[in-house]
Structure prediction request, 706 residues.
Amino acid sequence: MYRRSLFGLAAALAVAGTSLFAQDMIKIGAIAPKTGPLAGGAVVTQWPNVRLWVEEVNARGGLDVGGEMKMLELIEYDDKTNPGEHIKLAQRLATQDKVDFVVAPYGTGFNIATAPIYGKFGYPMIAVSAITDKMEELTTRYPNLFFTLGTTTAFVDGVKEILIEQRDAGEIGNEIAMVNVADAFGIELADRARELFGEAGFDIVYDKSYPLGTPDLSPVMKGAKESGAKAFVAWSYPPDSFGLAEQAIIEDLDVKLYYSAVATSFPAFKGAYGNKINNVLGAGGTNVDNPAIAAYRKAHMDITGKVADYWASANTYASLQILEQAIVGAATLDREVVTQYIKDNSFETVMGELSFTNNFSNTFWSVGQWQDGVFRGVKGSNVIGAVPVRAKTGWSD
Amino acid sequence: MNPATVQELIWAGVLVALAAFWPMMSNGYWLGIGVDVMMYTALATSWMLFSGPTHYISLASAAFFGVGGFVVGSGMSDYDASFWSMLALSAVIGGVLAALIGLATLRLSGVYFVIFTLGLAEMIRNLVSWVQNNFLGSRGLYVLTEFTDAHLYWMLLVTAGCVYLLGWIISRSRLGFALRIIGGDETVARHVGINTAMAKVILFTTTGVFGAIVGAIIAPRWSYIEPNQVFSPQLSFFVVIMALLGGSGRLWGPVVGVIPFLLIWNWVDSNFPNQSILVLGVAFLVIVYFLPHGFVGRIEQLRARARGR
Prediction:
């Protein structure tokens, strides 16, 4: 009897507890890889920013939703870099956990795969780590999906502009050595680059691909060296961006321009190679001299204990600021109203003032360069503070 | 593996008819689980068609599944083909591929065959990437359709039903009899005049066809196809574990393995998100120590005991 009444008391408390919570909490769902091939990128760019944002908002006492302060409650899952798993978890967030809002997934494929589910439940998705040339078709199909990091073409264009500048400056000739990882993103970028570089009068004298996750990149780099081209461009992913740099150092690749795509902007890239990678170009960039960015980077360091990457970290944080300001601005948790608010307004973020035209924010960095220990933006769209590109001079410390 | 009975076929028909109502009764999450259940039921049953009677453990499911997904992605994205034509094409390609592989490798036996099939998915992934990179080019493989989970569920249900029906027919045919003899002792089978190579290749081909069809049907659900995701080796292990958990003695074995496995997997996944992979290991231990013939073996054992009394 005693046991039963105790049990009843506990149950009553539990019920009271949850209903109390439900009133002044905003449930935020986040699904991204913690394991699997994309985990390396997600734990640098995605997860720390989600936690930083939730902690900062809660430290401020929550969000003001129509005069009522509501704290954030984060529900997070690991999709194991598996689309099937991710879709199932997204359905779980929407129908079982009944979260109020979601953080957009990490990776192009995952954003597109979940757009129908989140769309059905009216969640706005402010995608960051998703780059595609199909933006118009996708946002027409999924009006709840927003893009903030640029298009495939914009990324290739940034590199093309630099190549032309360096050719005009006499640093490089018409020959380019180009390699790519044989996976969706790498193939897409290389394909576009062949077109755009060709139009600009460049000759791709070495054009090679390698499989994702290949352990030995030395033949690739040896071939690039033998081609004698003074410009090296790699459409690469996290593990191989590192491997290529390592081989370039071993082979002492004699180029005036060296570019590798994703993960070149990671602090670990400099951590691995120190000043040897000075003047290496990569996808992304940021303006560390901007006071807003500097404050954000300091908070990131203080709260998560990690240095923010020099590219999509700031965009990821900005996307959460947009969501926050839209909820406060719309003064409701009604997702349809909040989505419309995102479309109609502009937002003050660490990336500056952002707004959407046809669900696309045209403010982003496309190319950056390691300059004396800092990865600075050199090309971008609607961004301030781009610095001039420097020529690569050897691989010594 | 025993020959299937007419009674079993009737039960299967009733179950398929009942299962068709699931999308009307469940919401997003449970319907999503239903899609998973149907997908693995189809894959594990088609795995059973070949591996059940012959005792060849194949880890090639991901290879054929990936081919199906990739053909649909590439065709719809790069050549504006329709989903249905690509579904048909993927079945053909999956079948041809399985036949070629079967001809080349079914002489291997035991652990050599297992290792080869494990490497197969990786090999095909690299081959596909190489072809796409050098000859096709790509703007990303988008599979954008109007299909909802309910549509995919029904398509998978039909596929699973077809696999079962085919397995039922085969198990009562001369071919099925030949396969059981091969499973018992391959040397004996050869001595009594069975063309063992041909029998094995035919069955391996059906596994390839259905693997590719399931991969093709799942592609619209993923919307964006990346080779390193559709060729995930984890899928092959899942299929084998679920099939063995169910038991390889009966054609309906996989069904009783898939459902409890996925329910436990999802429960662990949502409550202890970082420990879910443990379920795979525990399931394997349970099979080895407690259920050597799967749930089917246990059920038949209990039935026999009940009858004995």
Chain A touches chain B at residues 34, 37, 77-78, 81-85, 87-89, 91-92, 94-96, 108-109, 112-113, 115-117, 120, 132-134, 137, 141, 152, 180, 182-185, 187-188, 190-191, 209, 211-213 (CB under 8 Å). The first strand of chain A starts at residue 25 and ends at 32.
